[in-house]
Amino acid sequence: MFNPRLTSLIRKEFIQIRRDPRTLMVALLIPVMQLFMLGYAATNDVRNLPMAVFDQDRGAAARSLLDAYRASDYFLITYDVDSEDEIRGLIDDGEARAGLIIPPDYGSKIRAEEQAEVVFVFDGSDATSTKTALSAAQQIGSQHSTEIQMARLEKKGLADAIERPIEIRTQVWYNPDLEDAYFFVPGLIGQILYMITAILTATAVVRERERGTIEQLIVTPIRPWELMVGKLIPYVAIALFNTVMTLFIASWWFKVPMRGNLSLILILSGLFLLTSLGLGLLASTVAKTQQEAMITVFATMLPAIMLSGYLFPIEAMPTWLQWISAAIPLTYYLRIIRALLVKGVGIASLQTDILILVGFGVLLMGAAALRFRKRLD
User: Fold this and answer.
1) What single DSSP character describes residue 74?
2) What domains does the chain contain, in order, with CATH numbers?
């Protein structure tokens, strides 16, 4: 039924949000900025890694090897040096991230059909980028070595007689080009909803207490549940708008597929909002100032971002950290949103994650409602 007290409270909250430009900026502008900045920054791909080359051979075989590395977009041959000390100096100064040393007898060994060796050195101070670059260097070198071997066999007329005993055919489903955006951008949607909703809810309630207007609301006929719902509904509407906006940007700009049912995506995103709203409301009952409320929410965000599978695979974590990740609601929403967007699965494939998320939502919202009522009483 129509509740005039609740409607008036919701209208009052929307007016207050509209008159507060900082809240509007946090609610509408920051999610877009986060999506664009982190959508480009959060990637494990390494492209155009600056490389220094010390070519002591200067022959056709060495040039062919360098052309193989130039053809890939992993390395950018930036410096042609005359000693290993120069390579070390460039890497020490951060101007080069890798170095290739070609010995003076490289070409002669290739012509003599002997094994030739080259040395690749990397700056290991950035282990994540170095792992990708190291794998790329080995793969490019192996492919070039195979081409040389096949050319030798062709000269001897044996190329057609060589057949590999095992052929491994690989298939990558859902993301054949292994685009990092398919993994990181759906994760950003969850992280943005989690952060923005919890912060806005926590600060909105505490702001009433700081300004003394909470006492004015308490003496009115408004019931505690009406006050709680009236404070939450505007931020639910903002959060759902942010969901639609970030989904649109993810699909249109970052080309992340939206293979799942849009209605199901919005419904399950709304379910996740229960946990972030409950967290924000719970923080508001603990904090006395808006600054304390934000710090309380931020204290939960670091473990959520680090352990939910947003940045690092949960399977690679120690067992005790995996147990902690299982206690984080964002973990289950990330599984849901990635499966819906990239795989296009239905609700049957997500039953376990959905039920756990429902449990978190009921638990957090129930605890927040009890504390909220006590603070008002």
Assistant:
1) S
2) 4-42+180-376 (no CATH), 49-161 (3.40.1710.10)
Q: Which two tokens stand for residue 25?
A: 């900026």
Question: For residues 175 and 171, what is the distance between their CA atoms, to the nearest angstrom?
Answer: 10
- pLDDT tens series, the chain, 377 aa: 457 777 877 787 777 777 777 766 766 777 777 677 666 655 666 778 899 999 999 999 999 999 999 988 889 999 999 999 999 999 988 889 899 999 999 989 888 888 888 999 998 876 667 788 888 888 888 888 888 887 777 777 665 555 555 555 666 788 887 787 888 888 888 888 888 888 888 887 787 777 766 666 666 667 767 777 777 888 888 888 888 888 888 888 888 888 989 899 999 998 998 899 888 888 888 888 888 888 888 888 888 888 888 887 888 788 888 999 999 999 999 999 999 999 988 898 899 999 999 999 999 988 888 877 645 55
Q: How many whole angstroms separate alpha carbon 190 and alpha carbon 322? A: 19
- Amino acid, res. 290: Q
